[in-house]
Amino acid sequence: MKNIVQAVEISASKPSLSDNTADLDRLKRSVRQATGQEYVTCPLPDVAGAAGSFRAAGFQGAAVIRDTGSGVEIIRVFSRMPQKLPGMALDLGTTHLEACLVDLLTGQEVSRVSREHTQGQFGADILTRIHYAEQNAGLALLQQATVSDINAMAADLAEGAGVQSGEIMALGVAGNTAMTHLLLGLSPYHMCREPYIPLANSVDIFRARDLGLGLSPGAPVWVAPNVGSYFGGDLLAGIVACDLDLEEQPCMLVDVGTNAEVVLGGRDWLLACAGAAGPALEGGVAQMGMQAGPGAIGQVSIDPDSKRLDYSTIGGEKALGICGSGLIDLAAQMYLAGMMDTRGKFRPESMQERFIEDEDNPSFTVVQGVHSGHGQPVVVRQSDINALIRSKAAMYAVLSTLVQQVGLSFADLGRINVAGAFGRHINPEKAVVLGMLPDLPPDVYHPVGNTSLMGAVRAITDFGARQRIMDAAGRITYMELNVNQEFMHRFSGARFIPHTDTSLFPSVPRL
Amino acid sequence: MKNIVQAVEISASKPSLSDNTADLDRLKRSVRQATGQEYVTCPLPDVAGAAGSFRAAGFQGAAVIRDTGSGVEIIRVFSRMPQKLPGMALDLGTTHLEACLVDLLTGQEVSRVSREHTQGQFGADILTRIHYAEQNAGLALLQQATVSDINAMAADLAEGAGVQSGEIMALGVAGNTAMTHLLLGLSPYHMCREPYIPLANSVDIFRARDLGLGLSPGAPVWVAPNVGSYFGGDLLAGIVACDLDLEEQPCMLVDVGTNAEVVLGGRDWLLACAGAAGPALEGGVAQMGMQAGPGAIGQVSIDPDSKRLDYSTIGGEKALGICGSGLIDLAAQMYLAGMMDTRGKFRPESMQERFIEDEDNPSFTVVQGVHSGHGQPVVVRQSDINALIRSKAAMYAVLSTLVQQVGLSFADLGRINVAGAFGRHINPEKAVVLGMLPDLPPDVYHPVGNTSLMGAVRAITDFGARQRIMDAAGRITYMELNVNQEFMHRFSGARFIPHTDTSLFPSVPRL
Fold first, then answer.
1. Could you give the C-alpha distances from B482 to A350, B390, B408, B492, B496, in angstroms and in order?
2. Phi, psi dihedrals of residue B374, rounded to the nearest 5°
3. B206: closest CA of chain A, how far (Å)
4. Do the chains contact at A47 and B198, CB–CB below 8 Å?
5. Nearest alpha-carbon partner for B150 in B183, B111, B125, B120
6. Phi, psi for A11 (deg, rounded to 5)
7. Nearest CA-CA partner of B487 in B407, B406, B395, B416
8. In terms of DSSP bridges, do strands B251-256 and B416-419 run parallel, antiparallel, or are they unpaired?
9. Predicted pLDDT of residue B324
10. Touching check for A16 and chain B: CB below 8 Å?
11. Which chain B residue has the Cα nearest residue A474?
């Protein structure tokens, strides 16, 4: 464990006619003494502040430093050891940003915030933004939107922790390849054109001032490397966050954000795929529903005999909509109660008054308007279920293609880490009923939260984790599914509940 | 010999679906192959340009790189090996700036310019500027003046060399401690207050963009370290420029700019002093005269018998004024012709019609108005001679105090390097007559030109020279003359022509 920055106590004798060492050189000497490191540097833009603070404090206090590998760099000087040494970690998502502040002195998280990514005003999806970046000043506008978001989050995080955002001493960022490019002001032009080459997969640590970030100006910024255009630093960070790269037995990380991304492997090899499956799955989960939040239906049960439907909402409030995990619960329960067939088509005759006739797109009433939070009924349309079926089919096809690729079966897996909001709220047993996840004992599935953010935290608090992320980047084999016939075949077979081949899902009752 | 930056040919295979290495990573790999260095970095602000250029050139061309000691840093990428690799060196003087452009591929100087330092608008001397820097925004204004000067010089140098200033790939700067602080935006506040401590004596190499310099934005900028408030990087650069630090036998470097600065020593030890003597000497040389340039009287001879005065001007043009070396020539000749006494006082009776009566400040006509370039007579006032006498006394006192301090005599010196315009134009034999320089054979004196600029050139063309400058900084002993009683005593004794103790100047005729 070694933080990306550290605070060390320093002191020096005061200047005199017989010791006329300059302030900066006196500071460097004291850092040399405190660290035992011979090669101490201070970037020019930080010199005046650092040397001036050291003098103002009477040539004692604390230096915040960074180990550069070949020496030590002085970032800032305080008059005394700081009470907190705040470091910020950021999950740079396409749609959402989530960040936390960690006190690097204790390793404890002290605040956390999330927000919509305002870059979305320039396009909801990655491809639209990549094209927007090609316009005149487009790249700069996209970058500025993200920088402004980060600065706003830094201010909120700081307020939550009782510090100033200008005291944040480090930033770790993990995002997908496109978001990373846009943050860094690097053109993503070639990412969406064959052969799909990013401008940079790995940039060296830079300083907050280089991007106009409102942190301590010399704060080092570490950005997770990418493996390619379709495999970003968010997932690399996730691999290390759940220690997938240390596993002896093959394990999996499944991360469903804007893309569905899956990594299979352990300490000896890592195989990954991502991309095609994502949009369908996110579309299916998000199109009709709402984010997992207060008022979102998260759990559903339907009695197979009476068809009585019970639900619970997040926070226990009146229902406002249905989130992804609620939709999965609902679909699984409807199937088990005989309210939809193996293709996911509604069975009006068993849905009674909940069925709403519509030639093109009938609906199912989950909550009547009189019971909802907004007075409108909460309904699920046939098209929503169709999208869910496509998504779950894609997910299962991804997982099975990946496992089969290396000659394994699901039963060989040690654990399956399910990341993200999807992982946090999903009930694996229900997802198994739908055939979205393989038919394994529930304890194989581990919800691991926002692994991208966790990985970014690890990166700023643990030098070894940064090394492991770089190592993982170097040994990942990425499998392209868009051109994979096997995947397309498996996708077709998975468009039934639970699957065309029901022997794959022995625990799911046959109807 | 190793330049601060180097150009290396690079090439890489083009991206394909089977080799999707990102542009930057491909570039780094090619630099790794070209240099054999494992650790290759690229600062974030240079990434887009460098990787973009590499792609635009078809993944081949040339990289301009810098050896950081622990690896290699990419500064810029060209589509082919550049014809020239321009590096700029600057002598950052208080009054004057002189700079040259060196082609780092050949080591040849390709252009040279000089100009007044426009920072002078804020104060002619160092102390005034230090006080100006204490005002609100004063430091920033002083810095901006110098940056603008450097940018204008870079443009002129580039034009003279047939390149663009944005193609200048490195800058080496040597200046006194105050000028260095003001260029770097570092407060000189404590330099003029006991115990006279600079904010920084040595800053790490930074990049042109950090100061808004109009060179290649990532161009490394090396600034010569200082030893203390009164001993700057200009003299350290000078020590290495004339190889004083390699001499077996004790030698001297005498540099008269805004300050008179003298270093005595060789490869084993270095003793230096500066300061007090300077202002008087520069005042004496510059107050009445002009810079050594076309029309300046540079040499004077007076026939002791006929009192006939002959002179020559620089460039052979009609006389416009008299420069420092001309003044020394004149005073020595007037003394030898009996036209002034050993105290430097005019002897009207031997000056005939050239004497201009004035109760407070009589003058001597060097050139009559009908023969001058501007129609006005060129005259030297008694006060000018008085200032010259003070200056020469200070100079001799500095030299003799320094030599005596280490138990040597002038005869022990191997060579005396005389730097600057002073050294270029002075006739040592005349300076000996005045008692400004010790009575040694003329071949002991070596005019060595602008050693500060030469040292800056060495620093950007030779890694070893940079090391030697750092080493010299570490082993110089600085002697403070302001509080030195011995110096004051010697100063008084030297206020006669050639000296109170004429036995010190056996070669000078006694009158």
1. 105, 15, 22, 14, 21
2. -115, 5
3. 6
4. no
5. B183
6. -160, 155
7. B395
8. parallel
9. 80
10. yes
11. B21
Asked if residues A123 and A129 have their Cβ atoms less than 8 Å apart, the reply is yes
Q: Which of residues 58-117 of A touch B (CB under 8 A)?
A: 68-71
How much is the pLDDT for A275? 57
Per DSSP (E only), the strands in B208-328 are: 220-223, 251-256, 260-265, 270-275, 296-302, 309-313, 321-322
- Rounded Cα–Cα distance for residues A63 and A81 (Å): 8
Q: What is the pTM of this model?
A: 0.91
Cα separation, A205 vs B13, whole angstroms: 27
Q: Does A198 sit within 8 Å of B47, measured CB to CB?
A: no
Closest CA to A497 of A392, A387, A403, A418: A392
End-to-end CA distance of chain A: 53
Report how far apart, in Å, the C-alpha atoms of B13 and of each of A291, A475, B24, B59, B76 are.
46, 21, 13, 7, 19
SS3 labels along B412-444:
HCCCEEEEHHHHHHCCHHHHHHHCCCCCCCHHH
pLDDT by residue (tens digit) across A62-74? 999 999 999 999 9
Asked if A364 and A351 count as a contact pair (C-beta separation under 8 A), the reply is: yes
Q: Do residues A17 and B194 lie in contact, with contact meaning Cβ atoms separated by under 8 Å?
A: yes
B314-344 confidence digits (pLDDT tens): 899 999 988 888 889 999 999 999 999 999 9
Residue B506, CA distances (Å) to A355, B186, B438, B491 in order: 124, 49, 10, 20
Dihedral, CA of residue B153, residue B155, residue B158 and residue B164, to nearest 10: 150
Beta pairing partners, B364 = B355, B380
Min Cα–Cα distance to chain B from A71, Å: 9
Burial readout B197-235 (b: 16 or more C-beta within 10 A, e: otherwise)? bbbbbbbbbbbbbbbebbbbbbbbbbbbbbbbbbbbbbb
Q: Which of B456, B481, B446, B480 shows the shortest CA–CA distance to B252?
A: B446
Residues pairing with B419 in the sheet: B255, B449
Rounded Cα distance between A349 and A327, Å, is 21
Tell me chain A's radius of gyration from C-alpha atoms: 26
- What ipTM was estimated for this complex? 0.90
CA dist B274 and B228 (Å) reads: 11
**Residue whose pair of structure tokens reads 């009477």 in the numeric block:** A58
Enter the tokens of residue A495: 């468009």
Cα separation, B220 vs B207, whole angstroms: 5
